[in-house]
Amino acid sequence: MGITTIRNDLQKYMTDINRKKVVMPLGEVPEEKMPIGWKPRERFGIQMRYWPKLSMLVDDDAQTKAARGIPRMYMRYFIDQIEPKDKSQASVMNLMNIMYSVRSNPLLSLVVMGGNGSGKTLLGCALVNTLNRLSSTIVRATGEMEPDWNPYFCNEADLFNRVEGYSRDGMDWFTEYTENSKFLVIDEFGMTQWTPTDKRRMEQVLNKRFGNGLKTVILTNLSAGRFSELISDQLKSRFRMGRSVTMDSPDYRERFHEEEPTGPNPLDDDYEPF
């Protein structure tokens, strides 16, 4: 994807949003559609927050989501529509909501550790999808518009390739990731064999994001001990400004594989995933 295509996609998105801005007056729409704040709900003993259900009002096209780094199979998921399957997922969703909604909270980072199939990638993509659309609504109660978080989702390999310039799309991804993106989700952290250059690049990206006060979510299969070994002492001290959580969720992909299949067959010629 070239720089011109990326810029055109994002420009088209912003143009469309400016046309579709919705002013939501109090009391004129069903309560579940009103973006007037967060309401408590309890799941698995956790007093959770949930997002205004903006997914019921506006949606982004596939090109816009792809430009944000969302893989095709995760384009239809949003934090405001997901029900956690277990306490670990509920805890992660709650922390993600706090990072966004409590603006006075200095929670700059969230490190989510967990095994394969625990739902890390799905939650990370759902977070970016939701943040990407929140800026389309003006809240009549406050008269304010939600800020543009310019969120991105990327896996570690893509981040390395882009900041080194190997993607050859002309985009200054280092600046985009360290200055322009107010919310970045990095998936598969530590899953490649880091070279000294890789480690230096990752620490440059993370240190600059911390220095600029930008929010970062890291999703990894590493244990807490292995994660700590991978980064420098200076970066460890910065992560103390955030939170880390270890998910003990089962491998839901394996459970799905064992279940009796229902619904349309993905091998059919006319199969539509969504």
How many strands in all?
10
CATH class: Alpha Beta
* Helix/strand order: HEEEHHEHEEEHHEHEHHEH
Coarse structural class = alpha/beta
Low-confidence stretches: 23-37, 265-274
Could you please say which CATH topology applies here? Rossmann fold
CATH architecture: 3-Layer(aba) Sandwich
Largest sheet: 5 strands, parallel
List the helices and strands and how they pair.
Blueprint: H1 3-20, E1 22-24, E2 41-43, E3 46-48, H2 62-67, H3 87-101, E4 109-113, H4 120-134, E5 137-139, E6 144-145, E7 152-155, H5 156-164, H6 173-180, E8 183-187, H7 196-211, E9 215-220, H8 224-230, H9 233-239, E10 243-246, H10 252-258
Parallel strand pairs: 1-5, 4-9, 4-10, 7-8, 8-9
Antiparallel strand pairs: 2-3, 5-6
Helix pairs in contact: 3-4, 6-7
Structural features, described:
- The chain is α/β, with parallel strands linked by helices.
- It has one domain (27-247): P-loop containing nucleotide triphosphate hydrolases (Rossmann fold, 3-Layer(aba) Sandwich).
- Helix content is 39%, strand content 14%.
- The chain has helices spanning 3-20, 62-67, 87-101, 120-134, 156-164, 173-180, 196-211, 224-230, 233-239, 252-258; strands at residues 22-24, 41-43, 46-48, 109-113, 137-139, 144-145, 152-155, 183-187, 215-220, 243-246.
- Strand 5 and strand 6 form a beta hairpin.
- The longest helix is centred in the first third of the chain and has 18 residues, at 3-20.
- It starts with a helix and ends in a 16-residue tail after the last helix.
- Mean pLDDT is 77; it is low at 23-37 and 265-274.
